[in-house]
Amino acid sequence: MKLSIISVVYNNDQYIEDCIESVASQSYRNREHIVVDGGSTDGTLEVIEKHRDKITKWISEPDDGLYSAMNKGISMATGDVIGFLHSDDYYADQDVMEKVAGVFINKDVESLYGDLVYISKSGKRILRYWKSGNYRKGMVKWGWMPPHPTFFVKRELYKRHGGFNTNLRVAADYELILRFLGKHSISTHYLPEVLIKMRIGGNSNKSVKNLLRKSKEDFQAMKDNGLPIPIAALLYKNFSKLPQFFVR
User: Fold this and answer.
1) Fewer C-beta within 10 Å: the chain N or C terminus?
2) Domain edges within the chain
3) What topology is assigned to 3-245 in CATH?
4) Residue 157 contacts residue 180 (beta carbons within 8 Å)
5) Helix (H, G, I), strand (E, B), or coil: what is residue 139?
6) Which tens digit of pLDDT belongs to each residue from 117-137?
7) Tens digits of per-residue pLDDT, 54-80?
8) 3-state SS, residue 29
9) How far apart are CA 175 and CA 213, in angstroms?
10) What angle do CA 119, 244, 177 make, to 5 degrees?
11) What is the CB neighbour count within 10 angstroms for residue 61?
């Protein structure tokens, strides 16, 4: 079971090293790490060059945004299973990939997801805890979703059902999960532990403008994938996140 981990980055020399080191330190060895850079102009390329012995493949060229770069990474992947670890993020411990591979090896599933915590930029404080919970068929039709960075999928599914919809600028990850789990009913498994630590301030929530755009794109994704009552699903999707802020 070979895992392909794709990291997309643009001008993030501050944190890309943590991401690369996190993959390199994983106990599971049958893996490849693909870094897709969007033509960074800060010190990101120097950091990548410094750690090129830990990276299987990397490319640096202008692209049409985050999801275009992620699709590029998928096209470069050769593993049985694909996961994403973005440049602000790192794995919760050194055995995450070992646990993920174990599920795919021992269970007949097409995808897997887990929990995620949002942390401060310094990494010293947990600000949100996204506990996904067990999935039941049909839940995505009412607004439920797992955190995309914890969503590992067999590569053949991307060939069969397509990659990210680049017409969406901030919600293509949600649309893909909705399409895979909802429209195509792929099988999945919940790994009930924190897999990813994500620094706060992602693309979709870094401004009020982006939050409004995300809601608009979420609604469009729901309509495109045949959700019965999109407005109800959108309300549930947003309000169900409130408990994540009450970190114990």
Assistant:
1) C
2) 3-245
3) Spore Coat Polysaccharide Biosynthesis Protein SpsA; Chain A (3.90.550)
4) yes
5) helix
6) 999 998 889 999 999 999 998
7) 999 999 999 999 999 999 999 999 999
8) coil
9) 14
10) 90
11) 10
